[in-house]
Amino acid sequence: MRAVLQRVEQASVTVDGTVIGEIGAGLLIFVCAMPADTQATGDALAAKIAKLRLFQDDAGKMNLSLAQTGGSALIVSQFTLAADTSRGTRPGFSYAAKPDVAKSLYLDFIASMTALGIPTQTGEFGGDMSVALTNDGPVTIWLDTENP
User: Fold this and answer.
1) pLDDT at 146 exceeding the cut of 90
2) Is 79 a catalytic residue?
3) Are 73 and 21 in contact (CB under 8 A)?
């Protein structure tokens, strides 16, 4: 799986003019399932994200995790993280998992984050979403379980 994490002061997802997911301080997580991914891949990624020390402690150092701060996660499916731009100027997306598999893995990943005690909101899988956020830092981290 691939994920882009953005530390945020707030973030929201809107579909057809309606806010469907919204968080305060925490992480906006764009996630993409790849063909070789399994539920175990998503579980491992969720565990890593929950423990990553991306938040400032009292001394101003990034020493605290999402789990430690009580922050929330807004999880948005993002198949374009699998873009192949090696040829030409139009990206290809054949490296992304097929939609039915990807949706199942996306839902499993959300369940894993929730099971870790992270308050979680979501986007709409396959939906035409508008994502709004206020970056904090900014801190943006890219994770790839295939090439850690």
Assistant:
1) no
2) yes
3) no
